Amino acid sequence: MTPPCREGDRACLPGGSGLILLGLFVGILSCAPIAPQTTNYPDSSLTKSWDVGELAKSLAQRNHQLRSLRTLATVSYWGEDGRAGFQEAILVHRPDRLRLETLSPLGAILIVTADGAEIMGFHPREGLFYRGRSSKENLFRYTQIPLELGELTSLLMGLPPLEAQGRWEQGDNSIYLELAGGVRDRIVFHPSLGVPAKWERLSAAGEIELSALFSDFFLTPDGPFPLKISLEAHTRQKRLEIHYQEPELNVTLPLPLFVQEKPANAREIALESLGG
Q: How far apart (Å, rounded) are the C-alpha atoms in residues 252 and 224?
């Protein structure tokens, strides 16, 4: 989920749109169970006033229910450096495992894996293999999203990127949580479904630094799940929209999917050497 950037020795995710399915991802899907039948939620004019205890309980339940995700997605990016659209294969195993494959008609043009120890990115066309420790800085080099790995995996599963525990303050169908340094997180809940519909991270000065909108909910055995996630880094003037295509929730994902072996013909580069 990286916007356009210059070619060369920087970790760069090309921004072309792709067709599905590539051979590697077919292999991943071939042993998967069939996705459960889902039903779209109708728009409802019925609303409910939720108290802080109910909202915090709803958030804690979703944190417990949503553990893994396998899906294809269409990703759109807007920023000062241009705009791009591409197809992505996304595998998430909370709290700290992630696999992203950027697809083209000829196959994957980038494979990124991350776990609690390392982040690796393989660029098949260039024959480059980037490796670095699992950190917020290295993850940002590939995703352009300034979040820790555990926060990003939650976000991709339609969850606000924070722990449910804490002393919450009541808002209008929303709750606030005070973080370190005067930073605050705000979660707005869907008025009828009672699940998170918007998340904001506010600076100590009260300015919105990051926000995410969760929309197009559909019914699953594990509760409502958003088919669309819109993420905006306000201070960086960057925006991502992720549209999921038939996501599978809480599926078994073998741990080897979240690591990579360097191909023999690839040149290895340390992610930390890139700077930025």
A: 20
The domain locations on the chain are 23-29+47-274
H runs (alpha helix) in the chain: 23-30, 52-65, 136-143, 149-156
Taking the C-alpha atoms of residue 272 and residue 137, their distance in angstroms, rounded to an integer, is 9
Q: What is the DSSP letter of 194?
A: -
Q: Phi-psi bin for 142: left (phi > 0), alpha (psi -120 to 50), beta?
A: alpha
Tell me the torsion sign for CA atoms 104, 215, 4, 269.
negative
Q: What kind and span of H or E run contains 269?
A: strand 267-270
Instruction: Output the six-digit token pair for 134.
Output: 């699992």
Q: Nearest CA to 56 among 185, 212, 149?
A: 185
Give one word for 71, left, alpha or beta, with left for phi > 0 and alpha for psi -120 to 50: beta
Backbone angles phi, psi at 8, to 5 degrees: 130, -145
Residue 272 has pLDDT above 50, yes or no: yes
pLDDT of residue 53: 81
What is the four-CA torsion angle of 151, 246, 111, 160, rounded to 10 degrees?
A: -10
Query: Which helix (H) or strand (E) covers residue 104, if one does?
Result: strand 97-104
Token pair belonging to 25: 């991802």
**In angstroms, rounded to a whole number, what is the distance separating the alpha carbons of residues 130 and 123?**
8
Mean pLDDT to the nearest integer, 40-49: 46
Q: Note the pLDDT of residue 16.
A: 32
CATH superfamily of 23-29+47-274: Lipoprotein localisation LolA/LolB/LppX (2.50.20.10)
Question: Which amino acid belongs to residue 165?
Answer: Q
Please choose, from the candidates 91, 113, 20, the residue with its C-alpha nearest in 3D space to the C-alpha of residue 249.
Answer: 91
